[in-house]
Specification:
This protein has one domain. The protein has 197 residues and is of the alpha+beta class. The termini are far apart.
């Protein structure tokens, strides 16, 4: 009886072949240059921010000088096919803070519907510089994973929206998003309103 058992075990071990398993999906690994920050001015108000110029292209989109004056800039990240659209508003009676934040909230809710996760909201307050900001990060396969705003709550409002220009999986763009988020944090921390001394 022992002999049969040993024979069966020997037969099983000798007859086993290597089982080949499918390889997991691989994603592109991107190496990003170290950021180099440069001060950018929003004319005519002379509000300044610092932007990463090492891996971005910065262009003016439009400049409207009326009651709803808006100054727009595009920060393109060609390496990851992404763009941050920045809009600077001079707040006044016809251009109210609550109305602009409601528009941003409506835009954010569209992307939240496409995500199965709740957003991560980060607040930033610098009393000395009168900068009050909020960053909304959305996990999932959405085209706009980050939106943010910064304001002094009286005269100035800066809104930023990160757009991915191609359809991608969240896991594959996560390193790029982390790189861009660092730039967003630096941008907010560097804000200097022209009318705040």
């Amino acid at each position: 009886m022992n002999f049969k058992f040993v024979y069966i075990l020997l037969f099983l071990f000798c007859s086993c072949e290597n089982v080949e398993l499918p390889k997991p999906n691989a994603y592109l690994r991107l190496d990003f240059p170290s950021p180099t920050y440069k001060e950018i001015v929003f004319e005519p108000k002379s509000t300044t921010i610092e932007l990463n110029t090492a891996s971005t292209l910065i262009t003016d989109i439009k400049s409207t000088r009326n009651a709803n004056s808006v100054i727009s800039k595009s920060i393109s990240y060609p390496l990851v096919n992404a763009e941050i659209k920045l809009e600077y508003y001079n707040l006044n009676k016809s251009n109210k803070l609550n109305d602009r934040l409601k528009q941003l909230s409506d835009f954010t809710s569209i992307h939240l519907k496409k995500s199965s996760n709740s957003p991560k909201i980060q607040e930033f307050i610098n009393q000395n510089k009168k900068v009050y900001a909020s960053i909304i990060n959305i996990k999932g396969d959405v085209t706009s994973p980050s939106q943010f705003y910064a304001t002094d709550s009286v005269n100035n409002l800066l809104i930023g929206i990160l757009n991915l220009k191609s359809k991608t999986k969240y896991d594959s763009v996560l390193p790029a998003l982390d790189y861009i988020k660092t730039d967003i944090y630096h941008l907010i921390e560097s804000i200097k309103w022209s009318d705040i001394k």
